[in-house]
Design goal:
Radius of gyration: 20 Å
CATH topology: ABC transporter involved in vitamin B12 uptake, BtuC
Distance between the termini: 27 Å
Oligomer: single chain
Largest sheet: none
Number of helices: 14
Shape: globular
Structural class: mainly alpha
CATH class: Mainly Alpha
Number of strands: 0
């Protein structure tokens, strides 16, 4: 049985890697200046013309790399929160982390009139502030998951109210730019944005690995987990901190892109055929979904590019309707 599961996991991961690579190649070669596979290969190895190098390395590659990095981070964050709360509908959107980043970024943009790196720092700080509130609200060990969900819903409503107030009182031009950021967009990506997200992901990796090892044990119950040497409070703290860091850094540079963290783990887990957390597969599914959504956002309407958050929002709505249609009365 273990060999069968291992073999299936390898096949799933390998297939997801191939799908992600195929979408990356399509995204790099498609656009107003199309690149054939031969041109793409030649340019990657330094043999392309100057215009091909500019289009590839300065325009398309940062955006594609950002889509992969952001999608992977959101997929991991969603998988961690869903495993922690034992709820397939849990996501950073539900817990208010994305809302906290939005409030901080919108305040800096509309009230202080500051953009650039300060906006990213503010969004990151807003997500961390929400994390502190969540951990304080869920400090009781016996009912941490239930309290965490309630606290997250309350914070989400509060952040929506604050953001709406700031938008109403702002000038029309500034409100329009803030609305684009709040929707989620990859259009203004620079290489240093990608580098920061990858760095935070690497620094968070030990916590993610620890959470992946502890969460299946904590699902056995507090007494059983303690008997096996895992403290549920520590596992909850490490999981929430890792998920919040990954979500906050993506919101800082790409805005609060919705539903990727919700959909990716729910798609990845059934592929393994057993009750796995599927963190690695969730990262790959998240990268695939966001890369595909960005392609749709760029080319679905000829001559007009949409923010990628519009496409992911539509994807999430369809996904939720599909869950309701296929659940057949089962408890979610």
């Amino acid at each position: 049985m273990r060999r069968r599961r291992t073999r299936r996991s390898r096949v799933v991961v390998g297939a997801l890697v191939l799908v992600t690579l195929a979408l990356v190649v399509i995204a790099l070669s498609t656009g107003d200046y199309p690149l054939s596979l031969a041109q793409l290969w030649r340019t990657v190895w330094g043999g392309g013309e100057r215009v091909e190098e500019y289009v590839l390395f300065q325009v398309r590659a940062p955006r594609v790399a950002m889509a992969v990095a952001v999608g992977a981070c959101l997929g991991v964050a969603g998988a961690l929160l869903q495993a922690l709360l034992r709820n397939p509908l849990a996501s950073p959107d539900l817990l208010g982390v994305s809302g906290g980043s939005s409030v901080a970024a919108v305040f800096v943009l509309l009230v202080l009139g500051i953009t650039g790196p300060v906006l990213a720092v503010a969004a990151f700080a807003g997500g961390l502030a929400v994390a502190i509130l969540l951990l304080w609200a869920a400090r009781r060990s016996g009912e941490g998951g239930f309290r965490l969900i309630l606290a997250g819903i309350g914070i989400s409503f509060l952040t929506v109210s604050i953001t709406g107030y700031l938008m109403v009182r702002a000038q029309v031009e500034l409100a329009a730019s803030a609305l684009v950021w709040m929707t989620g967009s990859l259009s203004a990506t620079a290489w240093w944005h990608v580098a920061v997200i990858v760095l935070v992901g690497v620094l968070t990796l030990p916590a993610v690995l620890a959470a992946a090892r502890w969460l299946p044990i904590t699902q056995l119950g507090a007494s059983a987990a303690s008997g096996l040497g895992v403290r549920p409070e520590t596992a909850r703290l490490v999981t929430v901190v890792a998920a919040v860091l990954l979500t906050a850094v993506t919101c800082a540079f790409a805005g609060p892109i919705s539903f990727i963290a919700l959909c990716a783990p729910a798609i990845a887990r059934p592929l393994h055929g057993h009750g796995a957390i599927a963190i690695g597969s969730s990262a790959l599914v998240g990268a695939t979904l966001l890369t595909a959504a960005d392609l749709v956002a760029q080319f679905a309407l000829p001559g007009y590019s949409l923010p990628v958050g519009v496409v992911t929002g539509a994807l999430g709505a369809v996904f939720l309707l599909w869950i309701l249609a296929t659940s057949k009365g089962r408890q979610l």
